[in-house]
Design a protein that fits this description.
Layout (H helix, E strand, L loop, with lengths): L13 H10 L1 H12 L2 E5 L6 E5 L2 H9 L5 E2 L21 H11 L5 H5 L2 H12 L7 E3 L1 H16 L6 H14 L4 H9 L12 H25 L8 H7 L10 H15 L1 H16 L1 H12 L7 H6 L1 H13 L9 E3 L3 E3 L2 E3 L4 E4 L1 H5 L15 H4 L20 H18 E5 L7 E4 L2 E4 L4 E7 L4
Parallel strand pairs: 2-8
Antiparallel strand pairs: 1-2, 3-5, 4-12, 5-8, 6-7, 9-12, 10-11
Helix pairs in contact: 1-2, 6-7, 6-19, 7-12, 7-13, 8-10, 10-12, 13-14, 13-16, 13-19
Length: about 450
């Protein structure tokens, strides 16, 4: 018997496993957890390499605490994309990853983060002005528009004008492809990544990236020449940041981190906001408690007071728990023999902490399918029990900013609009690329406008 042993898992052909994962991810995960327990092996993706899924909190704690020299993510774990680039925080490992993380963390936390409060409120008001009373509409596109503009203005530091519009159009074309299934399949199966000219799917994608890069590099160079130290947007703060040797980020590093912040923070926050609005209005008692808390903050509350509001925080946490937009934490690759839950895994094995299954554990979260924000007021969950932003050395650096954005957008919307869910049937999540989104964009109906901004 071999020294190494993979956990049990489905014995069906890898093609079938991949199809199940792509078409019915949550049902497939739950079925595997019921059959095989807290750790199981799937063979999905391009080369059907075994991937070990883990949902036991203590095992996840072990994964997050293991020295990156022995277990880490990055390009070696399959985190790579021509859109993200090789200098992306997601693709780096070791000292390079630590350096970038230290440089990127300060602009996304603390007082610097709070300076974006008025911008977030203003963008939310502008984007929701078009809402009409009486007609059902999907709330997700509005949340996408809000999240997208917040990133362009707070992160990229762009102002309205020709470059803003061109960059916006280029990003939308890449992030919302005309045939999303083809794009998804190209990333699942690298064999389809063939540049056969501008009319081929992959060739078209690469040329879109090239056009986007020209715009981003032009913005970076212009910013460097116009005293970035006088500005508060995240790109300017990144340009002025220096590592321990006094070195700045290169233009390639700046470009890759900007795209990473966009990819990691746009669709994820938008879907989380849509889910939160749906659950708030699907549960009248939640809406009433939240309304009372927000009313107690006054007519024009300080962003810091909104950020600290306890029930609003619980609502956001529960929305991120029930259907986490990102089902899985980042892949980790075993670099030296690792024993986990009784299995000895050999170097090269891919381990994936499963956020969704961890959040569905009955012992941790009684009645896990119920939306109940109070659970986050009754106890504090450990970072390996509640992990919507991943964990360990790979926890999302934009976590605080994302929660801040969620709270301000929700407060602004709830203070100006009264709405109800359009369908009494419980909303189900659907796969949207690698993420979970509310079906049909979370259909809502505006009943009244409460006040004008």
């Amino acid at each position: 018997m071999s020294e190494y042993q993979l956990p049990d898992g489905p014995q069906t052909h890898p093609w079938i496993q991949t199809q199940q994962w792509l078409m019915h991810p949550l049902e497939y995960l739950e079925d595997c957890a019921q059959r095989y327990g807290d750790i199981f092996t799937l063979r999905i993706g391009p080369v059907f390499t075994p991937q070990v899924f883990v949902s036991d909190p203590q095992a996840i704690q072990q994964i997050f605490a293991t020295d990156p020299k022995h277990l880490d993510s990055g390009e070696a774990a399959g985190i790579k994309s021509p859109l993200l680039g090789r200098q992306s925080l997601l693709a780096l490992e070791g000292k390079s990853h630590q350096r970038q993380r230290r440089l990127l963390t300060p602009p996304l936390h603390g007082e610097r983060m709070l300076t974006y409060g008025e911008l977030i409120r203003s963008i939310t008001e502008q984007q929701t002005q078009q809402w009409q009373v009486g007609e059902p509409f999907p709330v997700l596109p509005s949340m996408q528009a809000i999240s997208f503009e917040i990133i362009l203005k707070a992160v990229f530091g762009l102002e309205d004008g020709p470059r803003y519009q061109t960059l916006k159009d280029q990003l939308i074309a890449i992030l919302n492809p005309k045939v999303p299934l083809v794009t998804e399949l190209m990333f699942v199966f690298p064999g389809l990544q063939q540049d056969l000219g501008a009319w081929s799917p992959w060739g078209s994608f690469l040329r879109q990236i090239q056009q986007l890069d020209e715009l981003i590099y032009a913005e970076i160079r212009d910013r460097k020449e116009t005293a970035p130290s006088a500005r508060t947007d995240i790109l300017s703060l990144m340009i002025t940041a220096r590592d321990e040797q006094g070195q700045p980020m290169t233009e390639v590093e700046l470009r890759d981190e900007l795209i990473t912040l966009l990819i990691a923070g746009h669709e994820t926050t938008a879907s989380s906001l849509a889910w939160a609005l749906y659950w708030i209005h699907q549960r009248p008692e939640v809406h009433e408690k939240l309304r009372q808390e927000l009313a107690g903050l006054g007519a024009n509350p300080d962003p810091n007071a909104i950020f600290r509001a306890s029930y609003l925080t619980a609502v956001c946490c529960e929305a991120l728990r029930l259907y986490p937009v990102v089902m899985l934490a980042l892949n980790r690759i075993v670099k030296s023999p690792l024993e986990i839950l009784g299995y000895r895994l050999e170097p090269g094995t891919v381990i994936i902490p499963c956020i969704y299954l961890t959040h569905q554990r009955e012992k941790l979260y009684p009645e896990p399918k119920q939306f109940r924000p109070e659970r986050f007021l009754e106890r504090q969950f450990a970072p390996y029990e509640y992990l919507p932003f991943g964990g360990g050395n790979r926890r999302c650096i934009g976590m605080a900013f994302a929660l801040f954005e969620m709270k301000l957008v929700l407060t602004t919307v709830l203070s100006q609009w009264r709405m109800v869910v359009a369908d009494t049937q419980l909303l189900r999540p659907v796969r949207k690329g690698a993420l979970l989104a509310p079906a049909e964009g979370a259909q809502m109906i505006i009943k009244a406008r409460l006040n004008s901004p």
